[in-house]
Amino acid sequence: MVKIDDLALVYANCHCMIHRMKEPLTIDKLQEVVLRNQSISNKKAIAS
């Protein structure tokens, strides 16, 4: 049985990202991916 504490409210695009891989991402892993991509984008913007 799923407990309310085990659920997370996410936007539709985040939900899609979570389920892109064969093994779904955890919320923590998704946050890591987003932060890493933001860092890469910021570095590219600075270099331009």
TrEMBL record:
It comes from the Bacteria. This is Uncharacterized protein.
